[in-house]
């Protein structure tokens, strides 16, 4: 249970206080609804469409579960080293918050031309202190790396999600 105590009397004496309580902590979750295409803008962070709004001042614990996929082919006697990274940013300022994570790496080298796809999931766990509420955060991702031909690079909708909970005032 969360107990909220607010000074409603100002500087006057005697002072008055308002006391309230919540049975459950402030928390929520969101899921990316549409798949985000990263291949069209390599080496540029792209908003995935997944956002979360933290509604009130305090400290929050966030867990982002990011599922990515890279499909590509390499030329004969060639290779490739591609990867997707994801980060969380303040949606208003664009400033990164928390760690940057490599979601997936796609490496291949062969003497014949081959096509392959690789899927992987990576977590981004971090805490955020909100002083001016509400604060909206968004997930961004980028495709990096040289070599080969990328046929698709995506963050999967329906399987990429975030959960959050307020852990302190």
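Q: What amino acid sequence fits the structure above?
A:
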């Amino acid at each position: 249970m969360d107990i909220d105590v607010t000074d409603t009397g100002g500087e006057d004496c005697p002072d008055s206080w308002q006391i309230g309580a919540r049975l459950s902590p402030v928390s929520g979750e969101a899921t990316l609804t549409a798949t985000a295409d990263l291949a069209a803008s390599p080496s540029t962070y792209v908003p995935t469409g997944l956002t979360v709004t933290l509604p009130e001042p305090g400290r929050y614990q966030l867990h982002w579960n990011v599922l990515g996929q890279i499909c590509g082919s390499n030329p004969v006697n060639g290779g490739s080293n591609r990867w997707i990274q994801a980060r969380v940013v303040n949606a208003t300022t664009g400033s990164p918050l928390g760690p940057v994570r490599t979601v997936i790496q796609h490496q291949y080298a062969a003497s014949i031309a081959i096509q392959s796809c690789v899927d992987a999931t990576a977590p981004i766990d971090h805490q955020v202190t909100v002083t001016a509420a509400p604060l909206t955060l968004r997930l961004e991702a980028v495709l990096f790396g040289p070599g080969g031909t990328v046929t698709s690079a995506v963050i999967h909708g329906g399987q990429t999600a975030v959960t959050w909970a307020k852990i302190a005032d």
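Q: And what stands out in the fold?
A: The chain has a mean pLDDT of 88.
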